[in-house]
Design a protein that fits this description.
It contains 20 helices and no strands. By secondary structure, it is mainly α.
Length: about 350
């Protein structure tokens, strides 16, 4: 929307500075309809905006900005093919129209056409090497494609242009976390939080990095912060439960998993993890109940079969243990497969 707004200001400037005396009557009329379309676009009246832009095009079909702006209206309505057609027409009229390449890249990205999106963002950068949004968006596409190093390069370039953007540090920190570079992830996410203390996702992802480093107290503090900001954040309760469990605080872990289940009774992983916490407390019957619930929700949940089989084995019920472990092995559980091989059992 920022790029469209700049076009709107430019249109007004041209009209105010030169007026109909310096421009042809046809162009002046078309620009008047374009201005009306921009007003409707700003008010989210997309059908009216499209109608006004279409009228402008009928009067003068050679104004690139009108196609770009109508494309934006189509995009807002989810009419991506029409949006792409308009952006492409705008580019045909002005090969250096960076905003049109950028906007078309967004639509290609939404359609999952990542290669084309990268091409358009790259063209935008070639036209304006300081376009921080183009670097950010291309980084996101690289992230979607699993090209993490390229994503980091783009986010780093964007940060060099705009070092005060919390979003850019958040995006790069998230990628560092996925790469297992937890120290850099924490550093970037801490910067993002300093710039935007209301970013629950930044606390959540930093908590994940702390947990993966084994710094459970810091992780718990971050997840708790998320919960204070959003008391219905299922992921925060689940992740805090994991951290509590790894920290040996089983009762608190059980409390958090129970909260997850209260918010989403179909969360098989919450039942499975609560079962693990019960088992670690020696409450094996409750553990079996939870593993059974997890399996009922997801009959292909190998880990739940494996965990239930292990509890049955510890209870001396080798027949049921073997049955569960064979099911887990068939579903791909390496732990179950190794246990059965040691026991000389096939699956």
């Amino acid at each position: 929307m920022e790029k469209i707004f700049r076009l709107f200001i430019l249109t007004l400037f041209l009209l105010a500075s030169f007026g109909p005396a310096a421009a042809s009557e046809i162009t002046f009329k078309a620009k008047t309809w374009e201005r009306e379309g921009m007003e409707h676009l700003a008010s989210r009246e997309y059908d009216k905006a499209i109608k006004a832009f279409t009228t402008a095009i009928a009067i003068d079909p050679e104004i690139a900005s009108v196609y770009n702006n109508r494309g934006s209206a189509y995009e807002k309505k989810g009419l991506y093919d029409q949006a792409i057609e308009d952006y492409t027409k705008a580019i045909a009229l002005d090969r250096n129209f960076g905003n049109a390449y950028f906007n078309r890249g967004i639509v290609y990205e939404k359609k999952g056409l990542y290669e084309r999106a990268v091409e358009d963002y790259t063209k935008t950068i070639a036209i304006d090497p300081k376009d921080v949004h183009a670097y950010n968006n291309r980084g996101k596409v690289y992230q979607q494609k699993g090209l993490q190093d390229r994503a980091i390069e783009d986010y780093t370039q964007a940060i060099a242009i705009d070092p005060n953007s919390a979003l850019l540090y958040y995006n790069r920190g998230t990628i560092y976390g996925k790469k297992g570079d937890y120290d850099r992830a924490i550093a970037d996410l801490t910067r993002a939080i300093a710039m935007n203390p209301e970013s629950a996702n930044a606390y959540l992802n930093r908590g994940n990095a702390y947990e993966n480093k084994g710094q459970y107290d810091q992780a718990i503090a971050d997840f708790t912060k998320v919960i204070s900001m959003d008391p219905r954040n299922v992921q925060a309760y689940f992740n805090r439960g994991n951290a509590y469990e790894k920290n040996g605080q089983y009762d608190r872990a059980i409390d958090d998993y129970t909260r997850v289940i209260a918010l989403n009774a179909q969360d098989a992983h919450a039942f499975n993890n609560r079962g693990s916490a019960y088992e670690k407390k020696g409450q094996r019957e409750k553990a079996i109940e939870d593993f059974t619930r997890a399996i009922a929700i997801n009959p292909n949940f190998a880990e739940a079969y494996n965990n239930r089989g292990a509890v049955y084995f510890n209870l001396g019920n080798e027949q049921q243990a073997t049955k569960d472990l064979k099911t887990a092995a068939r579903l791909g559980s390496r732990g179950a497969q190794q246990w059965l091989m040691k026991m000389g059992e096939k699956w």
